[in-house]
Structures are given as structure tokens and as C-alpha cells.
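Annex B.
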Amino acid sequence: MAKKKLGLEDLGGFVFSTNEDFDDSEYADEESQEPLPPGEQELEAHFSNKGRGGKTVTIIKGFQGPEEDLIALGKMLKKKCGVGGSTKDGEIIIQGDHRDKIMQLLKKEGYKVKRVGG
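Translation initiation factor: predicted C-alpha cells.
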């Protein structure tokens, strides 16, 4: 049995309009905008162990840019720290408390980084 369509967003982003003057620029993806250069971005390095069975993680928040750049930055940080992690919901999650090392790496890349929490 096929999945039932629930709303217009399930139709793949189609806009049904008979108005010839319709301006779809207000619906353009945010990814089409110019990404901010690293020097203008202010990232936050958080420490957390909530909701992870007591395991500690470092969370990098505040990245503004395309998802591909976020994934590439997360991959670089994981490789330099020699640990695992993931990238989701606009955040980079690195296993373990590596805030100091990550902050140094991000500053080398030109980002402004602020330490948040403990």
C-alpha cells in the first residue's frame, strides 16, 4: 500500500498558481544565498551529556551556510580529533569532551568560537 499524501509539502515543493505575476523568490531555498565567510561566523562550543546515556559530547552550534559545508567541517573536526560524531539539525556533534582542541582548530580555520557551559 502506497504512503498517503498528507499535504502540499509532500508533493515535492510544487507551487500551484494560476497567477502569472507570481514571484517565487520569497520561497527560494536558503542554500542559494551566499554563505558567510568563516571570519563573520560566530560558533559556540557546547559540552553535553544529557540524553546520551551519560556519554559526553561536544556540540558545535551557530554554523551558517550550506549543508555540504557543515558536513565537510564536521568531517574535518572528527578526523583531527580522531573520534566519531555526526552532523544533523545544523549542529556538529563530536564524541567526547574536545572543546579546547576543536576551538583551536576552528580558530585556525578563521572562525570565531565561544566556549559555552562548564
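The chain is about 20% helix and 20% strand. The chain has a mean pLDDT of 82. Further annotation is deferred to the next reporting cycle.
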